[in-house]
Amino acid sequence: QVQLVESGGGLVQAGDSLRLSCASSGLTFSAYAMGWFRQAPGKEREFVASISRWSGSSTYYSDSVKGRFTISRDNGKNTVYLQMNSLKPEDTAVYYCAADRVDGFLRKTSIKYWGQGTQVTVSS
């Protein structure tokens, strides 16, 4: 049984940083592209960032987080991270970890596995 378990969310102030983690089990972690999506209240789930399979040599970011967020993976720990700096109130959302078989800008319709989500709230 595949599990993706996010952690690291919380309540912070604008300008602060957070690091999200997603620990996986039950899948060949290195063989999956990993990504993060987010969903704010009343909005659709949107792509945030992804990292390619195997060595993770390629990363992809939405325009709204480029330059502020960094995605990374540790295949030895079966974990993907999202370092979020210079957080803004508009970053407030539930953040979901995702696994897919293809690299690139992940599409929510093709995601193979989802985590349960972790809440990030940024106050102004």
Tell me what you see in this structure.
There is one protein chain. With 124 residues, this protein is mainly beta. It is 0% helix and 49% strand. It has no helices and eleven strands. The protein has strands spanning 3-7, 10-13, 18-25, 33-39, 46-51, 59-61, 69-74, 79-84, 93-100, 113-114, 118-123. The strands form two sheets. Strands 2, 4, 5, 6, 9, 10 and 11 form a seven-stranded mixed sheet that branches. Strands 1-3-8-7 form a four-stranded antiparallel sheet, with no helix packed on it. Strand 4 (33-39) and strand 5 (46-51) form a beta hairpin. The protein is globular, with a radius of gyration of 13 Å.
What labels describe this entry?
about 0% helix; four-stranded antiparallel beta sheet; mainly beta; about 120 residues
Concise structural overview:
This protein has 124 residues and is an all-beta fold. Helices cover 0% and strands 49% of the residues.
